[in-house]
């Protein structure tokens, strides 16, 4: 009789193990989400210091290979200067995050979402666009480090 009482408990335990459960701790996910928000906020507010600090550990941010070695930016100050030059080309630049989601598996974090951007270049007409983005991060020495960031155009209008 006692054995029959444990069967539902054992089945529930087996079912819970078979379901897609996260293999990370809630703290890791919260820390990761905070890192993603910090980076996205730095992009929204054009905070060159934070952007350069985060991107200095990442790959895939510049098409000029002379600034990258071993998948890291060689000269953070030069990278900051390039970002400032890029920003100075715009009269207006506004980013509005529409969606954002993040998940962690082990020491790897993946985030994605989409945003709307409106901008006015000094030499070109006003442009508004929807873009989607994704980023991959790795937790190293207790800190989330950006490995790669990608965005692409969904739709544009003037």
Describe the main β-sheet briefly.
Answer: 4 strands, antiparallel
Average pLDDT score: 80
Terminal residue distance: 74 Å
Helix content: 25-40%
Encode the helix/strand succession as letters. Answer: HHHEEHEEEE
Structural class: alpha+beta
Number of discrete helical segments? 4
Estimated share of beta-strand residues: 35-45%
Q: Please give the order of strands in the largest beta sheet.
A: 3-4-5-6
Q: What low-confidence regions span 5 or more consecutive residues with pLDDT below 50?
A: 15-22
The number of E-state strands comes to 6
Which radius of gyration do the C-alpha atoms yield? 21 Å
Shape: flat
Short account of what is shown:
This protein has 4 helices and 6 strands. The longest helix is centred in the N-terminal third of the chain and has 19 residues, at 26-44. The chain has helices at 2-18, 26-44, 48-55, 76-88, and strands at 68-69, 72-73, 90-105, 108-121, 126-140, 143-157.
Structural description of this entry:
The chain is of the alpha+beta class. The chain has helices at 2-18, 26-44, 48-55, 76-88; strands spanning 68-69, 72-73, 90-105, 108-121, 126-140, 143-157. The strands form two sheets. The chain has a four-stranded antiparallel β-sheet with strand order 3-4-5-6, covered by helices on one side. β5 (126-140) and β6 form a beta hairpin. α2 crosses α3 (48-55) and α3 crosses α4 (76-88).
What keywords describe this structure?
4-stranded antiparallel sheet; flat; alpha+beta; 158 residues
Strand and helix layout:
Elements: H1 2-18, H2 26-44, H3 48-55, E1 68-69, E2 72-73, H4 76-88, E3 90-105, E4 108-121, E5 126-140, E6 143-157
Antiparallel strand pairs: 1-2, 3-4, 4-5, 5-6
Helix pairs in contact: 2-3, 3-4
